[in-house]
Amino acid sequence: MSDRLEKRKIPRSSGSYRVEEDSFYDNCFDGYSLPVWFDCDTGVDDAIALLLLHQLECFNLLGISTVAGNVVLEKTSYNTLCVLELAGSDVPVYRGADRPLIRDQITAPEVHGTNGLGDVILPRPSLDLEKESAWDALHQAALDYKGELVLIAVGPLTNIGLALAKYRDLPRLLKRAVIMGGGARGGNTTPAAEFNVFADPEAAEILFSSGIPVTMCGLDMTMKACLTSEELEELGSLGSPQAEFARDCLQNTLRYSRSLGQPGVALHDPAAVLFAADDSIFESYPAWVRVETKGKRSYGKTVTDLFSDKKMPDRNHRVVIDVDRDKFKARLLYLMGRYGK
Amino acid sequence: MKKIPVILDGDPGHDDAIAWVLARAMPGLDILAVTTCCGNQTLEKTTYNAGRVMALIGLDVPLAAGRERPLLAEPIIAPSVHGVSGLDGPALPEPDRQPVAEEAAAFMARIIREHEEAVVLISTGPLTNIAALLLLYPHLKNRVRHIYLMGGGIGHGNWTPAAEFNILVDPEAADLVFSSGIPLTMAGLDVTERALVFPEDFERIRAVGNEVARVTAEWLDYFYQFHQKLGYPGAPVHDAVAVTALVRPDLLVMRDLFVEVETRGDYCRGATIGDSYGITGKKPNVRCIMDIDRQAFVDLLVKAVSHYGKGAGA
To answer: What is the pLDDT of residue B310?
Structure first.
């Protein structure tokens, strides 16, 4: 990846999962910080992603926007505040869209529980939402960090679609977008479509055709970024309230994964966050990507020319297809191990 | 051992031709007829090519030509891959027979009706004829034992990012066939792009020395020229995998999936959508071939051309 983080070593605590040769552990607490915006529909795996973001000092997290997705907007916004309070973060949170641009709304309570956090209850937060809308705040941040801001979006892309609809200068102002969504080879909500993209295909198509370089952390990779029940217990045994919360809500989601015959729970959104921090444990390639919005059986499918003989002229996106699972797990546990230290 | 009755339906095409060289050489197959469709080239050309290939390999069965167009779609042809004739490269004998008067679907129906056992169809082109058969003679569905087809891809396309050529040419026909309930084995791009015959393998085939071997090696030379430019280290002999699935399934890795064909969309028309993560709970309707023992596949092709001895097919 061309994003070079400036090397300036600062002291850090040593976690039990530190791998000596792995430059990630230098970079993630490096003095330079990448301006980042996070858009989410919290969500069990969004919650873990938020906990990781708070520990990644290579990021300057400017703001967080919420969107309807895994559960309704009221719950995703509330959950985001709850998790940030748990993390000890005071990053401003902006309310986003409460419904997709065009299609009817879908949610996924079977995966994320009725409350969206695997039915784990966190204390009522003292934090509150900002007054400004998600798209206005995102645009302002992009203006402030002209050309440098990286957008990490791990929910339906409705807010981004609206921001692009309202601000025609936005594509020039964003450095790139890293999304959790889609998949080159198949879906988890329909055979063709992944949940986040299927929840708002038109918004996703607006982003992919906007000119902003998008890195797609899709199911091809995120299904491999999974933890088993035993590994979740290992996570919980780190002992902090944050780690125990992560274990509890992931164990609840794991029950759903197992009903589909999967051995572990995929940490989709954390994988996108860790990719944005350091892509060295991932495998990704440049490609053309668009979203099908007209198909009968392929509605919401992310279509890429990565594997096809036919190559399209405009190949400014990146498709992530693999991750070193052991290193992913080590990084996750290392970052989570920083809580309570 | 009792022979398996088969009908070869295709749009030759270099890899169709090699698939038929393979099928003809298999002692376990009883080839009842050859039918043609438009695809790699126009119907006129694919039918002429079928006649030439049959003369080369000494396949003495009736030939029937199909529809000149896909069911609904505008025709698409692939001269960039197969040349202006649809089978450019080595000189071939002229056809030693004319197509029968009946069209392919009607002719297939007659063969299927008259044969005492259920018949296997091997499709190496667009599924136009087989769809027409199902539309016109739905009561014969149970008399089709199995369809082995080259087409589609669970992971990706080739002619568009999402769609493989054979399915893209006639997606409506493919949709009818995939949803027909007839047992299907799909040799899609997932496997056929791995069914690579390398230039050194061409020489093994050429060295067999007979006319069929020489022509097959030259077809591979021609076919490879196109694919080399795309970065392939060899010639992907797509269609021969459909025949391999019938005669040597032990060389293949297969996965049963629920698969549907997309007939609409800005980007996905002609895509075969497979339920890879098992989320619909629907019963698999397609046995999808996902990988192949490449070396054993090449050995099979060498063995097949050896079958033609010296001067076979004259």
So the answer is: 64
What pLDDT is attached to residue A205? 98
Catalytic residue among A112, A139, A268, A317: A268
What is the tally of structural domains in chain B?
Answer: 1
Q: Which residues contact A224 (CB under 8 A, 6 or more apart)?
A: A266, A322, A323, A325
Q: Name the minimum distance, in Å, from the CA of B234 to any CA of chain A.
A: 14
Extract the residue ranges of chain B whose pLDDT is less than 50: 311-314
Question: Residue B137 and residue B153: Cα distance in Å, rounded?
Answer: 28
Q: Is position B194 within any domain?
A: yes
- The pLDDT of residue A6: 29
Residue type, A191: P
* Residues in chain A with pLDDT values less than 50: 1-18
pTM score, whole prediction: 0.93
First-to-last C-alpha distance (Å) of chain B: 28
What pLDDT shows up at residue B209? Answer: 96
Nearest CA in chain A to B152: A308
Measured between beta carbons, which residues in chain B are less than 8 angstroms from residue A185?
154-156, 276
pLDDT, one tens digit per residue, over B239-283 is 999 999 999 999 999 999 999 999 999 999 999 999 998 889 999
**Domain of residue B199, residue span:** 4-306
Residue from A197, A268, A298 to probe the interface with B (highest B Cβ count within 10 Å): A298
Indicate the length of chain A as a whole number: 341
A306 vs B contacts (CB less than 8 Å): 156
CB B141 within 8 A of CB B180: yes
Reduce the DSSP state of residue A38 to 3 states and report it.
strand
| Interchain pair A292, B260: CB under 8 A | no
A268 is catalytic: yes
State whether A191 and B154 contact (CB < 8 Å).
no
Work out the minimum CA distance from A290 to partner chain B, whole angstroms: 8
* DSSP secondary structure code for residue B139 in this structure: G
Which of B99, B125, B147 has the alpha carbon at shortest distance from B39?
B125
Domain covering A34-337 in this structure, CATH number = 3.90.245.10
- Binary contact (A191, B279; C-beta < 8 A): yes
Q: Sort out which chain B residues have CB atoms less than 8 A from A266's CB and list them.
A: none
Which residues in chain B are closer than 8 Å to A309, comparing Cβ atoms? 158-159, 230
pLDDT score for A341? 63
Q: Which CATH number goes with the domain that contains B76?
A: 3.90.245.10
Q: ipTM value of the model?
A: 0.93
Would B311 be classed as within a structural domain? no
